[in-house]
Write a structure and sequence with these properties.
The protein is 27% helix and 39% strand. By secondary structure, the protein is of the alpha+beta class.
């Protein structure tokens, strides 16, 4: 005879686990955001996973420096460059077919 209770029990356990992990990340973010980390000119705060604990989080100052590329829906949509945290040169926007749509100096 097939056990029909096992599947709902597994799904309920999985949902509880996911909720517990999510709320831990939310609490970590709230604690870090309330610290009002101030970054030097050109840098910004980023929140990333930390250590081997899946709910751990680190807040740190990051400086965008060098080229960047943005993709959405499997297509390159933007290329540009930052120097020491500030936009440098042209930003090139592409349409969904990959053709240049706009150049922003």
């Amino acid at each position: 005879m097939k056990n029909t209770c096992a599947r709902p029990l597994c799904l309920a356990s999985l949902m509880l686990l996911l909720c517990a992990c999510s709320s831990g990340v939310d609490r970590d973010y709230e604690v870090l955001a309330n610290q009002n980390l101030t970054c030097p000119d050109g840098a910004h705060v980023e929140y990333d996973p930390w250590g081997g604990n899946p709910t751990g989080m680190i807040a740190s100052c990051k400086l965008n420096h060098g080229p960047y590329i943005v993709a959405t829906g499997g297509n390159i949509r933007l290329k540009g460059e930052n120097r020491m945290g500030k936009k440098s040169g042209e930003m090139i926007f592409f349409d969904e077919a990959g053709k240049i749509e706009q150049l922003v100096p």
